[in-house]
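Tip: read the tokens left to right.
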């Protein structure tokens, strides 16, 4: 499920957060910055999105999540992207 800001969108953001309230707050903030937000509830969902060929300009990870933590996901996908900022 992708959330799109009204008007133009220039930045595709993946938001990986297991706590619903945090996901809602961060999604709202990103939408106000005209981002197209794709939420994921855990690291496994994030990796599945990358394996499906989805591309993102920015990825925000929760450090501590069930299934896979943010750092574990970064280690798994870092070979498929050019640069990662932690």
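Filled-in amino acids:
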């Amino acid at each position: 499920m992708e959330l799109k800001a009204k008007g133009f969108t220039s930045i595709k953001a993946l938001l990986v957060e297991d706590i619903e309230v945090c996901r809602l707050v961060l999604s709202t903030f990103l939408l106000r910055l005209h981002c197209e937000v794709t939420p994921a509830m855990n690291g496994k969902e994030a990796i599945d999105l990358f394996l499906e060929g989805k591309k993102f300009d920015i990825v925000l990870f929760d450090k501590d999540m069930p299934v896979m933590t943010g750092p574990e996901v970064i280690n798994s996908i870092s070979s498929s992207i050019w640069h990662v900022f932690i």
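The beta strands are 11-16, 35-40, 58-61. The domain at 11-85 is CATH 3.40.50.2300 (Rossmann fold).
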